[in-house]
Design goal:
The structure holds 2 protein chains of 2 kinds.
Chain A: H1 5-17, E1 29-34, H2 49-55, E2 63-65, E3 71-73, E4 76-83, E5 86-91, H3 105-116, H4 128-131, E6 134-141, E7 144-149, H5 156-161, H6 168-174, H7 176-179, E8 190-196, E9 200-205, E10 218-223, H8 227-236, E11 241-242, H9 250-255, E12 259-274, H10 284-292, H11 296-303, E13 308-310, H12 333-342, E14 349-355, H13 361-374, E15 376-382, H14 385-392, E16 401-406, H15 415-422, H16 431-434, H17 440-448, H18 453-470, E17 473-486, E18 489-490, E19 505-506
Parallel strand pairs in A: 1-10, 1-11, 14-15, 14-16
Antiparallel strand pairs in A: 2-3, 4-5, 5-7, 6-7, 8-9, 9-10, 11-17, 12-16, 12-17, 13-17, 18-19
Chain B: H1 2-30, H2 33-37, H3 43-52, H4 59-71, H5 85-120, H6 125-139, H7 142-156, H8 168-198, H9 201-209, H10 213-250, H11 256-265, H12 269-297
Helix pairs in contact in B: 1-12, 5-6, 5-8, 5-10, 5-12, 6-8, 7-8, 7-10, 8-10, 9-10, 10-11, 10-12, 11-12
The chains are: A alpha+beta, B mainly alpha.
């Protein structure tokens, strides 16, 4: 055995000394790792983030949002509200699709119609819910379109930021299936070259794009489900941008000579929803105690590398309607115990906290621990997403408390979180099961039926004071989106979690 | 032999129905896919979709329809991909199968010589070293081995690609990873079954005849020791297909495992059903081949 030891040592030494045997990618290529590759490239037939991130680089919408979250003309050069329910959009002239067709009002109407499908009972598009307030799109002239809503709909512009315009003639010619896989055509900066399911999407710069040419000629998206693998690819130059970097990987990426990070607060808010219909959370004092029990800052500092911010309610600082005067619950375990005693639980009470947020498991356990310390003796119950959705939100809607987070669909408006979480209408999301705050439905309805932001703000202030006091949830924190980026590329993470790669430049 | 084949075919049908029933039952107990497809839509819209997907009928009706269609190879359209589920699974099956076969080949290439060595030189340093390796190998989870190999060979030494499945070099690490999962067991079986036969009379006779040690081991001993080895390969094949799921995830390989796992999370019933069904068929076929191999390896066994 000893005879071959020197040989082994030699082989190992050679391995260490060998220079890079794997070729790095060419300079005019930008490669992005996504956790999965979307199953269709048709921008209206899915609602997955990993698909939206690809689609926005191939398609344009009527308006665009800058990295500072301001609206910017895109396929529409200007827009205005003619009255409470009618918006007029002037279209950019001479915009070409990847196949050479010129974009017109016909295409805009077609794109709206294929999502809202007027007169049809069954709607195909999973995005229908986002824009179901739209009644119709009317062609006024070749470059003017009116979008008419059922009721005043203040969120219209927000919803149109991701509403890709597709080519009518082309889609009708090639059919829906080919349009979603082999013949995807938009007006965006990159056009489709190759779509390999589960593996990669290869795009090439579109010469006729109205903004001009993007800095990178080739754009490649690769599906890499495992974060550790994505990090390894980033370090070796196999990919240039990775998403959703966890706090424990930050330093590793920051200290590597070839990579760096870019991080920014996003619209995702974390909360524990409480079932207000049943004991013990039917009592306000218990719900407030649950809020006082959580040391939010400790979790942010120690478990999230400081990349997060405490919130007073679920309405975020970046959203329209946010009121900075409403303050977060302080960490006060003594007060929590007093409140529990007041509510009739001097010796504490047993509760169960559920969660399907797999990647936040350690935080979930910490929350349960903090509750237990003040007397809300918590059993934590982690779930897989599929079964959880049914149990938590849908048919059953029957968990005592649930830790989760809400991404607002990247809509920067208080309504995008208040309605799904707290409105009790039967078509709603979580609120219909768990929230029972008197008078809240009416205020939410009132605020969403007014177009003028100045008039909506005071209503949202009232709502925030009300929910801070009534505590239908434990209000936790907002999180950051953190990208790992190759030092060869300059790009900044955006608050809306978009990867708008037209802004990426080689360094 | 004909009776054996008929018996086997009947058993196959039973397995098919059993697997379908279990998969069907578990899936339908696990949640409502419509809730995942239309999260923010009114209940009325959901009800319509449920009807369109055939999910509103009573479960026995749904199962009968499923069996009738499945018999014709039609597992329905994937909810997420809007395409026939069978095609989606079949498209990825070659990748998973080649990964699994490569892993088995690698594992055997290592396990057989080392196992024989351990048996022949029982108690030697080499034998102990092999035993320790076996122990280590069995205690390391697949994804951990995968990530460690990746860090060493792809990140540190830059010899092989980190992930993917587009070139031969990209297949090396995944095959080793999955192979490492099963090598220790193979090695142990080779060693113990060799030990069982190596001192039997016919081996001693062969030696006494003056047959070279090499031939004694390969022709006389190994052939008789092969029976348990083949059995274990058959059994392990199913486990390896399971291990392929993790390997595919770590190395971003577009195989059946990843497809099914994602489909489970999304409650995409047709894909899960088609996928599990095809995997079950493959495992049954492998076991069938193992049975046939028995006869070849040991003519005293009768197939009944």
């Amino acid at each position: 055995m000893k005879r071959w030891l020197p040989g082994l040592a030699l082989v190992l030494a050679l391995l260490v000394a060998v220079p890079s045997g794997v070729a790095a990618q060419p300079k005019d290529t930008l490669t992005v790792a996504l956790s999965s590759i979307i199953s269709t490239l048709d921008p209206h037939m899915h609602f997955e983030r990993v698909g939206i991130l690809v689609n926005i680089n191939m398609f344009d919408s009527l308006l665009h949002r800058t990295a500072k979250l301001e609206y910017e003309p895109s396929l529409a050069t200007s827009w205005r509200a003619l009255n409470d329910t009618t918006w007029e959009f002037k279209l950019r002239k001479g915009v070409k699709f990847h196949n050479g067709d010129v974009m017109t009002a016909e295409d805009v109407k077609y794109s709206v119609d294929r999502v809202i499908e007027p007169g049809k009972e069954k709607k195909k598009s999973p995005q229908y819910g986002n824009v179901r307030a739209i009644k119709e799109a009317k062609i006024v002239s070749a470059d003017t379109v009116h979008i008419i809503t059922e009721k005043p709909f203040p969120l219209l512009l927000e919803r149109l930021v991701y509403f890709p315009i597709v080519p009518k003639k082309h889609v009708e010619k090639v059919g829906e299936e080919a349009f979603g896989s082999t013949a995807t055509v938009g007006t965006g900066p990159w056009k489709l070259v190759e779509y390999k399911r589960d593996q990669s999407i290869k795009l090439e710069a579109f010469d006729g794009h109205w903004r001009g040419k993007p800095a990178f000629k080739h754009l490649v998206f690769r599906g890499i489900p495992e974060v550790a693998t994505a990090v390894a690819e980033l370090k070796t130059g196999g990919v240039d941008i990775i998403r959703n970097v966890n706090a424990d990987l930050l330093n590793d990426i920051k200290s590597h000579p070839a990579t760096t990070i870019s991080t920014t607060p996003i619209l995702r808010v974390h909360y524990i929803s409480l079932d207000m219909r049943k004991p013990p959370f039917d009592k306000k004092a218990v719900r407030q105690a649950a809020n006082y029990a959580i040391d939010k800052q400790a979790i942010i500092t120690k478990m999230m590398a400081g990349l997060g911010k405490q919130v007073a309610t679920v309405v975020q600082p970046q959203s329209l309607g946010f009121d900075a005067a409403v303050q977060p619950y302080p960490y006060d375990p003594k007060k929590a115990k007093e409140l529990l005693a007041q509510a009739g639980y001097p010796n504490g009470v047993e509760v169960t906290m559920h969660s399907a947020a797999v990647e936040w498991r350690p935080h979930f356990e910490a929350l349960g621990q903090m509750w237990t310390e003040v007397g809300l003796k918590t059993t934590v119950k982690p779930w897989d997403q599929g079964p959880a959705w049914n149990k938590f939100f849908q048919a059953e809607g029957n968990v005592q408390s649930q830790y989760g987070n809400w991404g607002n669909y990247s809509v920067f408006d208080a309504d995008a979180v208040l309605h799904p979480l707290y409105h009790t209408e039967p078509g709603g999301w979580i609120g219909k099961h768990y929230a029972r705050v008197e008078g809240l439905d009416k205020l939410i309805d009132e605020a969403r039926s007014i177009i003028d932001p100045a008039k909506r703000k005071p209503i949202y202030s009232r709502i925030q004071q009300m929910i801070r006091e009534e505590a239908p949830s434990v209000f936790l924190w907002t999180q950051n989106d953190t990208l790992g980026i190759s030092k060869k590329v300059s790009y900044d993470a955006r608050p809306d979690e978009w990867l708008w790669l037209f802004a990426a430049k080689p360094k | 032999m004909t009776a054996f084949l008929i018996r086997r075919l009947l058993r196959l049908v039973v397995v098919c129905i059993g697997v379908s029933l279990v998969t069907f039952g578990i899936l339908h107990a696990s949640g409502d896919p419509v809730a995942l497809i239309l999260p923010e839509a009114p209940d009325a819209d959901r009800a319509k979709l449920r009807e369109a997907l055939g999910l509103s009928d009573p479960l026995p009706t749904q199962f009968a329809r499923f069996v009738a269609n499945a018999a014709r190879g039609d597992f329905g359209k994937s909810f997420a991909h809007r395409e026939p589920a069978f095609g989606l699974v079949a498209e990825r099956m070659p990748t998973t199968l080649s990964l699994t076969c490569l892993a088995v080949a690698l594992a055997l290439a290592l396990a057989i010589p080392v196992g024989i060595y351990s048996a022949v030189r029982r108690g030697s340093i080499g034998d102990h070293a092999a035993t320790v390796t076996v122990l280590l190998g069995q205690s390391m989870p697949v994804f951990w081995i995968g990530i460690m190999l990746m860090l060493l060979f792809a990140v540190q030494w830059r010899l092989l690609p980190v992930s993917g499945w587009e070139s031969w070099s990209a297949m090396v690490l995944p095959a080793i990873t999955l192979g490492a999962f099963t090598t220790p067991l193979f090695m142990r079986i080779v060693r113990s079954s060799m030990l069982e036969v190596i001192n039997l009379d016919y081996v001693r006779t062969a030696r006494a005849k003056g047959v070279s040690e090499w031939l004694v081991i390969c022709r006389h001993a190994l052939r008789n020791a092969a029976l348990p080895i083949v059995t274990v390969i058959g059994l392990q094949f199913g486990l390896l297909l399971g291990g392929a799921v993790l390997t595919e995830t770590v190395f971003a390989i577009p195989g059946v495992g990843r497809l099914i796992v994602r489909a489970v999370v999304q409650l995409d019933f047709p894909i899960v059903q088609a996928g599990i069904f095809m995997l079950a068929m493959i495992i049954v076929s492998v076991n069938f081949m193992v049975d046939v191999l028995y006869v070849y390896l040991n003519p005293t066994i009768r197939l009944r």
